[in-house]
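Example 3.2
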Amino acid sequence: MSKLNLSKTWNYAAATESTNHILLKEKYDLFINGEFVKSNSKKYFDTINPATDEVIAKISEANKKDIDLAVKSAKIAFRRWSKLKAKERGKYIFRIARMIQERAKEFAVIESMDGGKPIRESRDVDIPLAANHFFYYAGWADKLEYAFPNKTPKPLGVAGQIIPWNFPLLMAAWKIAPAIACGNTVVLKPAETTSLTALKLAEIIQESGLPKGVVNIVTGAGNTGAEIVNHPDIDKIAFTGSTNVGKLIQKSISGTKKKSTLELGGKGANIIFEDAAIDQAVEGIVNAIFFNQGHVCCAGSRLFVQESVANIVIEKLKDRMSSLIVGNPLDKNTDIGAINSKEQLATINKYIKIGQEEGGEIYQSKCSISKKGNWCPPTLFLNVSQSHTIVQEEIFGPVLAIQTFRTIDEVIEKANNTPFGLSAGVWTEKGSKIFKLTQELNAGVVWANTYNKFDPTSPFGGFKESGFGREGGLHGLKAYLKFE
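Structure, written as tokens:
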């Protein structure tokens, strides 16, 4: 009998998602008062496919006059929208949710082309969750009195919303759905590198018949966002992004009547105890740090493994990393797609270099990388301590820093030793350990025996330099209401 030769390697056949069904314009203008209008600046910038370096479309750059126009239209629309029967508001939001579902495949492909994330993630996570947020908050639109008994909830007015590039459509849904369900109107600015799905959402909003001016979408870079933050007729600022920008926003609105929620950076601790289901935990580690190329504010970028199982966990993790496929985001086999931009890739590489210079032991999986586009292989560092830069600072890429611990008190102290407080994960079979850590970890979200699981009914947000306020669930409604 011949023996099976296991030394030969094998590969998946390409399973590339088609782009024939998507509709993209060469140029996208601003969406103001229910119409696509040219910017006063008359300037456009390129949105680039990070996997191929090809220009996908040109995006309009909004200036101060454009923001004035958008805020004015939102302010006028607020008078009627806030007085519309809540049941009728809910109907519009339900309609938007259904239309997202109907065009889910198109949205998923555009999200992967524009942002670099694997099509499996866009298809199975981003787009369904975006639709679910609209469905969820549509259901609350006429039930606010039940959500907040013995209070009289009232909308705030015009919400200025600024979202990041890592989950473009999902972040738009997180912001827009609760705001308009509560009777507010919106001026939203997507990130300059990933504006396409927000602009496609504008098309759906237009087709849905939502009253003009309720949702306005303006595009541009940091200056455009600053104009929204500083506009005197904005009543609420909702920002998701870096801690540094969040601090600037808070400084800008201090002394004003503007309300705010800030969801900022993180340096999540993922904790593996010796009694954890090791194989399950290894999959959780991979999902925690390599999901969306590590472009996740709540990524489990600090791994703490109990000393007695550290060797086996690290060995299994390296084996699992070697099987991850880095490549074309539109290929259904791809596990890790392209880094969102050349600027972000440079930042990640800077931190990898710092990690090596400070004495960390680096391990990167071997994988072939295209010369075009922005790529970073999955990376981990061993022999690092609390003082290492890559342990303390957010990298926002597929880079994991691993430390060990012996006791539960030691790991709590280490996990909390960071300026951030957004997320954490705990892997153990003991419910008592889970309860102890959820009480003592300074993190807004603590996952137990899983990681990066999101649901529109569950609030999300952080402590310390990870921001304040919550999005999702009833908490997400409260952020857009005042009570009389």
